[in-house]
Amino acid sequence: MKIAFIGGGNMAAALIAGLANKLTPGADIHVVDPNADALARLHKQFGVTTANAIDAPVSAADVIVLAVKPQSMREVAAQLAPFVVAARQPLIVSIAAGIRGADLSRWLGGYGAIVRCMPNTPALIGLGVTGMVAMAGVGEQQRALADDILRAVGATVWLDDEAKIDAVTAVSGSGPAYVFYFIEAMQQAAAELGLSEEQGKQLALATFNGAAQLATRSVEPVSLLRERVTSKGGTTYAALTSMEVGGVKAAIVKAVHAAARRGKEMGDELGAAD
Ligand SMILES: NC(=O)C1=CN([C@@H]2O[C@H](COP(=O)(O)OP(=O)(O)OC[C@H]3O[C@@H](n4cnc5c(N)ncnc54)[C@H](OP(=O)(O)O)[C@@H]3O)[C@@H](O)[C@H]2O)C=CC1
Ligand SMILES: O=C(O)[C@@H]1CCC=N1
Predict the structure, then answer these.
(1) How many whole angstroms from 263 Cα to the centroid of ligand 2?
(2) Tell me, what's the pLDDT at 114?
(3) Could you say which ligand is closest to the alpha carbon of residue 14?
(4) Which CATH number is 175-263's, of 3.40.50.2000, 1.10.520.10, 1.10.3730.10, 3.30.565.10?
(5) pTM of the prediction?
(6) Ligand 1 atom nearest to 35, measured from its CA
(7) Which CATH number applies to 3-165: 3.40.30.10, 3.30.70.270, 3.40.50.720, 3.30.420.10?
């Protein structure tokens, strides 16, 4: 299977790391990006072929992954349109936040074989999760192909309604950043309490890994697992009370809503009719 990536930045690199020489040989992955350093790194690491502008190997691809910034998508789609027409019905996979399938299809000259995906960066180590929705022009085989690609880098969750992808973006697309933010806060507190940087890192990361695994493997709700840590009048109670007083949970819920709103807003702004 030949896969072309338009855009070879952070998220493309995470996906390529999971796919190259696993689902398909590195040499069957072609990456287009104006940034020569990014291309050199990807070529060296994974053996992918590269180009600084859309070229013939893109037309030869079975799957074209659009991994540029949402703000670049319209221009890139216009550049890509003649190559898609020349090709044999490739599957287009867009990972851009906000960009709606109908807008992308219009920019591609009415091309409809588009799957809209929202992966996340743990794809880099095969532990990603991707929300996906197929546009009406996607056949069963292409839908299965999209699923194979994203399952090579983690789990997939199919949606029946494209509007829900803004929620996926807010929860799991952006989600790793919230987790890293929480880990940073734990590490800062560890340092303030006199632990070394290394000790704080080890304790915070092992706690996140352990708690996430416990929650994943447990049949019980996460709230019950939380209660089991919280002894009456004890240390966890003191911490959680402080978080409640500080409005931490409400702030997190509000933040996730802000991300979802931003996704919709980007769709409105960037997809506005020509
Ligand atoms: N980062 C994440 O966690 C996630 C990102 N996404 C989505 O993935 C997409 C890419 O994000 P991310 O990887 O973070 O962004 P990056 O900025 O890291 O990557 C985008 C890349 O596209 C390149 N580029 C710009 N214009 C073109 C062009 N005309 N043709 C080919 N390549 C071009 C950029 O080059 P240059 O830097 O020189 O402009 C850059 O290397 C976005 O749409 C984002 O919404 C989705 C899920 C998660
Ligand atoms: O921040 C963003 O817009 C992208 C989409 C999800 C994660 N990063």
Answers:
(1) 9
(2) 97
(3) 1
(4) 1.10.3730.10
(5) 0.95
(6) 38
(7) 3.40.50.720
Contact between residue 65 and residue 80 where contact means Cβ atoms under 8 Å apart = no
Domain boundaries, the chain: 3-165, 175-263
Work out the percent of the chain whose per-residue pLDDT is above 90: 95
Taking Cα atoms as reference points, which of 212, 100, 121, 117 lies closest to residue 156?
Answer: 117
State which ligand 2 atom lies nearest to the alpha carbon of 262.
3
**Burial level of 274, CB count in 10 A (0-12/13-18/19+)?**
exposed
For residue 116, the surrounding DSSP H or E stretch is strand 114-118
Q: Cα of 149 to ligand 1 centre, how many Å?
A: 19
- The answer, yes or no, to whether ipTM is higher than 0.95 is yes
For 8-22, b where at least 16 C-beta lie within 10 A, e where not — what string? beebbbbbbbbbbee
Q: Quick: pLDDT tens for 81-139.
A: 999 876 678 999 999 999 999 999 999 999 999 999 999 999 999 999 999 999 999 99
Q: Of all protein residues, whose CA lies closest to atom 22 belonging to ligand 1?
A: 7
* Largest interatomic CA distance in the chain: 69
